[in-house]
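Would you be willing to look carefully at the protein I have copied below?

:::
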Amino acid sequence: MFKKILIANRGEIACRVIKTARKMGIQTVAVYSDADKHALHVRMADEAVHIGPPPASESYIVMDKILQAIKDTGAEAVHPGYGFLSENAKFAKALEDLGVAFIGPPAGAIEAMGDKITSKKLAQEAGVSTVPGYMGLIADADEAVKISNEIGYPVMIKASAGGGGKGMRIAWTDDEAREGFQLSKNEAKSSFGDDRIFIEKFVTQPRHIEIQVLGDKHGECIYLNERECSIQRRNQKVIEEAPSPFLDEATRKAMGEQSVALAKAVDYCSAGTVEFIVDGDKNFYFLEMNTRLQVEHPVTELITGVDLVEQMIRVAWGEKLSLKQSDIGINGWAIESRLYAEDPFRNFLPSIGRLTRYRPPAEEATATRAVRNDTGVFEGGEISMFYDPMIAKLCSWAPSRGEAIEVMRDALDGFEVEGIGHNLPFCAAVMDHPKFISGDISTAFIEQEYPEGFEGVTPDAETAVRLAAVAAYLKEVREERDAKISGAMRNHARTVDPNWVVTVAKTDYPVELSAIDEGARVAIDGREVEVHTRWTPGDSLCHATVDGAPMTIKIDKHGAGFRMRYRGADMVVTVRNPRAAQLAQHMIEKLPPDTSKMLLCPMPGLVVSINVEVGDEVQEGQALCTVEAMKMENVLRAEKKAVVSKINAAAGDSMAVDEVIMEFE
């Protein structure tokens, strides 16, 4: 077996590979840019090599720098992770020429499957069902419009060398096809160094389901069931699960066998994924093959018990697969929530900064539940604008789908992240959404269920009562602590102010408390509720039981009450005595400043272009400028008709959140 491997990647996937290598007794080498000098993967590895400035184009995807690091450290093999050089056939070939093993498929398979145009042709030849589309090279935007009309709208415009949602746009009209072609081309060039574009029919209301395959160098190949990846935002997966709640055994078998046939057609070895779109009648169409480890591989590992990274390493060493197709079953259900540094309250725009608090839930694995968190960050670490915004992958497992959802709910409730915008509230909201719970989902889920964007969750009446009861008791605990500190309490007997008015989601709940052991009996909303908790002031999490049911609530002190975050709801809950509550009704609400005549930068990023000049009259929906952040280009448009009076930025400028780009008359 290899004695030393180099991981040509960063973040959570580098940490993930290091964990398995360590388990196998293999030493590891990390590579890092200036921005990642103190990164977790650098700390975890046995050795680390500096490879350049923060931009990936000057460090992580500079092949010569990686090859030099291999030579300097004597690494015998390279695991590429995903992204960067993982699907670069030239890199795989360069390693072969150097006599270093590539922990992935052969260069020929990468070249054939990594190019989406070629892969579709090969899939057709291998008997795999494919989506109608134009596989030739497209010269310009006018030709893209012509082809789109021939295929019929809507169409998907995609980068041939793309992946991870980069270089991908859906077009419903000629104007969208023209603009989408140029944006996809730009993103493809900056992300992959390859700006070739192709167009295919966009299947409406599709489900995104993928098959995990695993092959060796001796001609054996198996499939490890499927993953459902339909909860997506901007073509980027957010929630994944295994197995799919939609597939039946016959469809699973057909998809798996076609995936293996395609893999064998290109002499594939190592782990890989064949992606399909599936319509409501369970017709499935080949989308692409990812010749690498997928981000969402943990859910497959959780239901099969197979360590895919270990299998990749063993295949690269030349071992035969120890698994047969008959060995692969489905044990329980697994769900993955991707934690992104993206603010759902700002339309999921990127957020950067320091993680002032990062406390994931404890990992566990028992016969009835499991929690796993793959991460590459730590408390105090920096989320950079130079790389993908994913912070962690939180996974749950349980014997059934309903139980796995409940485990995920609990884990999300206990996951603490502060200092940046993040999508934990959104992931929590999805877990409670009726359509997700029923399995009635498609890739249009977010667009359809949150058409105006995510604005948080308003708790239902029962949840509001439970939160109000908890808040009333926490207020009593805080008052008692304050009294002890001030010396106002001459003995340690508990003194409870029995009457409060708790305001949750603009509803007032008069409450009366009576003390019980480690809690209180709360008279509220015409009934009595028992609250038990060992929470003390300063704790950021409140683990409570309300009438015997557990609740984990994120707590911050806020004026006369608390900021409480629970199951996607984020609200200020006030707790006042009756007189103060009465007076509060007469307080004038403070309104935010008027920014209606300004274009604010919605996220930290780089101005790519300014599309207007001072004095121009702009129309609603007109493109004003383009801002790039975390490898994605975002077009900012006019919300209404106006005249540009001032422009405060130029192409190449770095902008902070809410910095004024331009002003209007």
